[in-house]
Amino acid sequence: MKFSRTLMAFVQNRYERLKQIRDRPQAVAGGVAVGMFWGFTPLLGLKTLLSILFAWMFRCSKISAVIAVSLHDLLTPIWPIILRWEYDFGFWILNHPHHFPARLSVKDAHIEYWLHFRTLEILWPTFVGSLLFAAPCALISYWIVEKSLERFQRKRHPRSTDPL
Question: I need a labelling partner for 140 at 20 to 30 A (CA). Which of 27, 71, 93, 134 fits?
Answer without folding.
Answer: 93
